[in-house]
Design goal:
With about 220 residues, the chain is α/β, with parallel strands linked by helices. The protein has 5 helices and 8 strands; from the N terminus they run H-E-E-E-H-E-E-E-H-E-H-E-H. A 6-stranded mixed beta sheet has the order 1-5-4-7-3-8, sandwiched between helices. It has a two-stranded antiparallel sheet with strand order 2-6. A hairpin with a 5-residue loop joins strand 4 (about 115) and strand 5 (about 120-125). The chain is globular and about 40 Å long.
């Protein structure tokens, strides 16, 4: 979420070309689908999607609370879209208000996780799926979004418990997808091209956070 710099929406559901596996591909002008498009769409074929269980989480200890399906797009990452980034957000509100917003189909945005000030982690979208959190379709497809309860202009909201819990979460995400633990791959919402947000803000302590992530990365889960 975060503080906005201007009024501009994020990712929206954008239709893809239809793919008919095992038959003839019908397309205007007899266009041939590119190899990378085939790789991205293979998961649409019946029977190839990864098994899913209702309420299942990707991070041990997280509590599952489902976001509205209007705020994310079903996918099968990292097989259709590689994951190579974590995007850090600040909610600009309370934990409860963020959950409520992500459950609202009219909000049209949500992150995969919310970390509360006391360190509690809630997952609202599976990492398999594309969350509308970054305001940039390419970044949404390749990243996991983590919200943090608080306001960008209130440094007291960024608690030690929040930093530590978030760092453990980010470390596990980086381990799962072999993401380098550096500032090119762990970024703030403000650093996403075309963003209209300023979070996590000037009070976010990147040196502290990256130190905690690196420490958690080398600590057995």
């Amino acid at each position: 979420m975060g503080e906005r710099k201007a009024s501009k929406d994020g990712d929206r559901k954008v239709g893809r070309r239809a793919l008919l596996i095992g038959g003839t591909v019908a397309a205007a002008g007899s266009a041939v689908l590119a190899r990378d498009e085939l790789a991205r769409l293979w998961w649409r074929t019946p029977g190839v999607e990864k098994p899913r269980k209702e309420g299942e989480v990707d991070y041990a200890g997280a509590r599952w609370v489902a976001a509205s399906d209007a705020n994310w797009r079903r996918a099968d990452r990292p097989d259709d879209y590689g994951i190579d980034m974590v995007v850090v957000h600040v909610t600009q509100g309370s934990f409860d208000s963020a959950v409520k917003a992500f459950q609202d189909p009219g909000h049209r945005a949500a992150a995969h996780y919310i970390v509360r000030q006391d360190g509690h982690v809630t997952q609202m979208i599976r990492e398999l799926d594309v969350a509308y959190h970054a305001g940039n379709r390419d970044y949404n497809e390749r990243s996991v979004g983590i919200e943090h309860e608080g306001f960008v202009d209130r440094p007291q909201d960024l608690t030690d418990g929040m930093y530590e819990a978030s760092a453990r979460l980010t470390a596990r995400i980086c381990a799962r997808y072999d993401i380098p633990v550096d500032r090119e791959h762990i970024i703030g919402h403000v650093e996403v091209p075309g963003t209209d947000h300023t979070d996590p803000g000037r009070h976010w302590d990147w040196d502290k956070y990256m130190r905690l992530v690196r420490r958690a990365r080398t600590t057995p889960a």
